[in-house]
Amino acid sequence: MRNLLRPLAVCALATTALGAGTALAQDATAPAEPADNAPAADAVPADTLPTGESAAPDTRPQAYVKETFKDWRVVCVKLAEDRESCNMQQLMLDDNQNPVSQVSIAPLPPAAAPRAAAVEIAAPLETLLSEDLRLGVGDATPVRYRFSFCTTQACFARFALTADEVAAFKAGSAATVKIVPLAAPDQTANISMSLSGFTAAFDMVTELQSK
User: Fold this and answer.
1) Is 210 buried (19+), middle (13-18) or exposed (0-12) by CB count in 10 A?
2) SS3 state at 200
């Protein structure tokens, strides 16, 4: 099934890596809810520059990999006053080693309870958004999440995990992201998410955020 998925553009992954640390915490304002029959969110049109106008230099701070724990990496952006904004990420590949999805996770502060972590998953543009995204750990029944928005490179689902769901990720060995390709609406593409190194990466980002 995976050959039906269009590889994610490199620029889509770079954008996610740069802003996920703070954006995830800001956008995960409600607990994750199953959306059994709910339609996906409308795509957000990409901003375009007027003809003849050149883009301004990108002055945003650059993301960098602070640490790698098996299949997860901790990605940070330096902020003012020697502070950092960090999250954990994994680039998910198909059988041909093409990047087809990326997940970014940021632990949330205790005040956000029952939300314990904010999640952002990028999927290829040629995804049937009305079928939503499903995520499950091991043999557990997958939970269904709506897509939040699209850019010119990818479509993104943003949602929150509870403490119990985070515990399931820490205890598991693998999770599965399920999406439906637009070219084959009668089929489901299963993308494997390794949980090897998840606990160490999550604990490190939690510690960094508490400083």
Assistant:
1) exposed
2) helix
- In DSSP terms, 78 is beta-bridged to 84
| CA nearest to 123, candidates 89, 151, 100 | 100
pLDDT value at position 36?
43
- Pair of tokens at residue 37: 């029959």
Nearest-angstrom CA–CA distance, 112 and 187: 37
| pLDDT beneath 50: ranges in the chain | 1-2, 10-53
The pLDDT value recorded for residue 8 is 78
Task: Work out whether the CA dihedral 166, 168, 170, 174 comes out positive or negative.
Answer: negative
CA distance 79 to 143: 34
Map out the domains of the chain as residue ranges.
2-33+65-210
CATH architecture, domain defined by 2-33+65-210: Sandwich (2.60)
Put residue 97 in one of left, alpha, beta given phi > 0 → left and psi -120 to 50 → alpha: left
Cα–Cα distance measured from residue 155 to residue 148, given in angstroms and rounded to the nearest whole number: 8
pTM of the full structure: 0.78
- The set of residues, in sequence order, having a beta carbon less than 8 Å from that of 11 and lying 6+ positions away, is 153
d(CA 131, CA 179): 7
